[in-house]
Design goal:
The chain is built from four helices and two strands. It is globular. Strands 1-2 form a two-stranded parallel ribbon. The chain is mainly alpha-helical. The chain has one domain. Helix 1 crosses helix 4 and helix 2 crosses helix 3. The mean pLDDT is 93.
Length: 120
């Protein structure tokens, strides 16, 4: 399944723009927001456990972190905000819609300035 997702991402953003995290696939680190933890009311603990994922993201030096699920997106976005990291967090479906030219103007909140006007 991990290879299928990588294929989709590479088709959407271009193989030359895909930067994989390490470790990856079934050995990838959890973002620290899943399993209800995101809504648990313990942001300090969530930030503490999410720091490992943040460091993994920052090691890629990528401008965007693509998240396939809503909990991961919210946690990874919050980690960037809390630790003042400079990457943008974007849903995989947002990039798919953007590449197809069907992303609405109201769905561009998490895109960086370089992509906000694409396809309008």
């Amino acid at each position: 399944m991990a290879e299928d997702l990588r294929f989709v991402v590479e088709q959407v953003v271009g193989k030359e723009n895909f930067i994989d995290m390490h470790p990856n696939k079934s050995n990838n680190y959890c973002c620290g927001g899943g399993g209800g933890f995101l809504q648990s009311g313990f942001p300090e603990a969530r930030h503490y456990y999410g720091k490992r994922k943040l460091d993994q993201i920052l090691a890629t030096k990528a401008d965007y972190c693509i998240a396939p699920c809503h909990n991961c997106h919210s946690q990874i976005h919050d980690l960037a905000h809390h630790f003042e990291a400079k990457y943008q967090t974007v849903h995989l479906w947002t990039l798919i819609c953007l590449s197809l030219g069907i992303l609405g103007e109201n769905e561009r909140e998490y895109l960086g300035d370089d992509l906000k006007e694409v396809g309008l």
